Amino acid sequence: MVPPDNEIDESKRVIQKSTGVTPAEQYLVRLCEHSFLSLWSYPGVYRDQTPGRGSEWGKEVCDLLVVFENHILIFSDKHCKFPNTGNLYLDWSRWVRKAVLESGGTIIWSRKVDQNSS
Fold first, then answer.
1. Which of 6, 8, 13, 115 has the least C-beta neighbours within 10 A?
2. 91 and 115 in one domain?
């Protein structure tokens, strides 16, 4: 039986780390767990969200967050197949837009939320 939140000793709370959902996330978690980053890494970070508004758990901020002193590393994996239209310049620009730039919006938003909360 789990005691109510107001009866839990804060010094004994344990952070339950995710093991990753997708193969890419699981690989990322394994890389960190087998390096010095394991001491400061938090996989599958979600932001608080009002229950009933699409997701009970909130929205995923990143696949892996590493926090050490005032340094923050944000990892976000994205599986994007490289297109093959025969035009390498066009294929590269489409892949970068989808795999990097669209994901960057989430990272920038995460940074703004962090700055606003301090």
1. 6
2. yes
Report which secondary-structure segment, H or E, holds 28. Answer: helix 23-33
Q: What is the pLDDT of residues 47-103, one digit of tens each?
A: 776 666 555 667 778 888 899 888 888 888 777 888 999 999 999 999 888 887 776
Using CB atoms within 10 Å of the CB of residue 41, give its burial: 0 to 12 exposed, 13 to 18 middle, 19+ buried.
Answer: buried
- Report the DSSP beta bridge partners of residue 72: 67
57 and 103 assigned to the same domain: no
Residue in the block written with tokens 């989430």: 106
**CB of 28 closer than 8 Å to CB of 43:** yes
Residue 48 to residues 6, 51, 65, 102, 109: CA-CA distances in angstroms?
19, 9, 16, 22, 14
Cβ within 8 Å of residue 49, ≥6 positions away: 55, 57, 58, 59
**Are 62 and 13 in the same domain?**
yes
Q: From CA 22, how far away is CA 10, in angstroms rounded?
A: 32
Which residues form the domain of 112?
81-118
The answer, as to whether pTM is greater than 0.85, is no
